[in-house]
Amino acid sequence: MRKHSELQMQVLRLYRDILRCARSRGPEERAQISRFTRDKFSQPIARTQVTRIEYLLGYGRRQLEMLQMAGTKKVEVRR
User: E strands within 1-79?
Assistant: First the structure.
């Protein structure tokens, strides 16, 4: 079994952190955050698209920061 690269570990860490943050919310919001997160993380991206992956990691971290702020109520849906 291969070890994960550092970039893969960062993606997995972000995924876990977002789901942990969702646990602190109410049932409806938790379900919405979980669905949104699973949907975004399940979209296939080639390993060779490192720049895109790094961009999405930054975007995800900013979204996590917004979720962690006390007054945030919804997840921004960006297409």
Answer: none
pTM of the entire predicted model? 0.82
Average pLDDT, the chain: 88
Q: How many Å apart are CA 47 and CA 72, to the nearest integer?
A: 32
Domains of the chain, residue spans: 6-68
| Residue 5 CB neighbour total at 10 angstroms | 11
Instruction: Kindly report the length of the chain.
Output: 79
- Measured CA to CA, the distance from residue 8 to residue 25 in angstroms comes to 27
- C-alpha angle with apex 62: 57 to 64, nearest 5 degrees? 90
Is it the case that residue 56 has pLDDT exceeding 80?
yes
